[in-house]
Amino acid sequence: MTSDNVTEAESVEPSEAVPAKSVDDRLIDELVGRAQAEGMQLTGEGGLLQELTKRLLESPLKGEITDHLGYDKHDPAGKNGGNSRNGTRANTVLTDVGPVEIAVPRDREGSFEPKIVKKRQKRLSGVDEMVISLAAKGLTTGEVQAHLAEVYGADVSRQTISTITDKVLEGMAEGQNLPLDAVHPVVFIDAIHVKIRDGAVANRPIYVALAVTAEGRRDILGLWAGDGGEGAKHWMHILTEIKNRGVSDVLILVCDGLKGLPDAVETIWPRTIVQTCVVHLLRNSFRYVARQDWDKIAKVLKPVHSAATEDAALERFAKFADAWGKKYPAIVRLWENAWEEFTPFLRFDTEIRRIVCTTNAIESVNARIRRATKARGHFPNEQAALKCVYMAIMSLDPTGKGQARWTMRWKTALNAFDITLDGRLSAARQ
DSSP assignment of 64-77, as one string? Predict the structure, then answer.
């Protein structure tokens, strides 16, 4: 800055001083304007964003080599001082704005270890996150590869993309070994069916266990692949795994007709109430109903699941069976078989009913998983399916705002849980 500029700046009254943000905006506008005037593209190969990224990466690298050697470039202090600069090596790294070639400083002893772009590093961390985000939406490795080539002009192999996404399996394994809260008011266990090509393409279940904590947060307890023939022994193994991570009590466990699960729950957590998911029960009912009868069946079933007491629900269900049993006997059998696990929630406060059965915590999670798995069609193996499901779950709430809204929505219900279930929830908070 020249002395004239300093004088001009000092003559400005405080009230007239230009905010730093405005100065930054002017500099950015000037830079973009000059680039456009000179015919320079803003994006793409050789564009302004790539050049800026190159400078932003190379500048700290120069600072790092100076710190490593202890003297500035061309400083006489470094003459005959042992280790010294030894030119640069070219390295092309994949960034959010495409491939960028940078000059990485070297030293004669080869002891310099750059931090901002490490030796042999080919991607910045943001690129890995972008690849995982694309894969979480259900894109195959080939589709991710094509996207990077089309949008960023980057040639990334399918193997590299697979290696990036494989990192999430480490996070999944680590997450399924973390300690858990001692008491959970609700745990939802559900199955998502995916197509896995293991010799022949077959539908296989991926089981998702989602808990609501005593603070009202959603917490994924784990993912497990099954073959569809699971029984009490299988669920004993999974529930024991969860218990060993610290869960000593679950107030309500919500599931949908998973064979052997209620027996396993009674063994692991004797006081836990097993509740059939009403949303799933209704959905399964409508699979047997002709489209023209949907509204009529919905109107007759609503008084059953919204009844004030179990006796009232039984009376209304008898009326439904009389009116529709001959035409839809499968629905009657479905409700009769699920009745023992359906009725517990009728004894709960309306707040608990609403939050557990109407605003089902796992439904939004399942919807995201289904979109991702449907986009993929089928998976080559069980691990690929688990990876896709896990990435879909991890991408649910990137900003954390959804979790905050969820916590607020559960506050009233958590108080009702504590009153209804003998203070077991408040005991866990102490």
Answer: HHHHHHTS-TT-GG
Taking phi first (over 0 means left), then psi (-120 to 50 degrees means alpha), and beta for anything else, what does residue 130 get?
alpha
Q: Which alpha helices (H) appear in 176-260, and where do they start and end? A: 232-244
For 389-405, write each residue's pLDDT tens digit: 988 888 777 777 777 77
The rounded distance, in Å, linking the Cα atoms of 332 and 353 is 23
Q: What are the tokens at 193?
A: 């069916």
Higher pLDDT pick, 21 / 36:
36
How many Å apart are CA 313 and CA 179, to the nearest integer? Answer: 40
How far is 329 from 327, CA to CA, in rounded Å? 6
Cα distance between residue 276 and residue 274, in whole Å? 7
Rounded distance between C-alpha atoms, residue 390 and residue 194, angstroms: 13
User: DSSP character for 379?
Assistant: E
- pTM of the complete model: 0.68
Burial class (CB in 10 A: 0-12, 13-18, 19+), 331: buried
Contact 329, 322 (CB under 8 A): no
Q: List the beta bridge partners of residue 188.
A: 210, 254
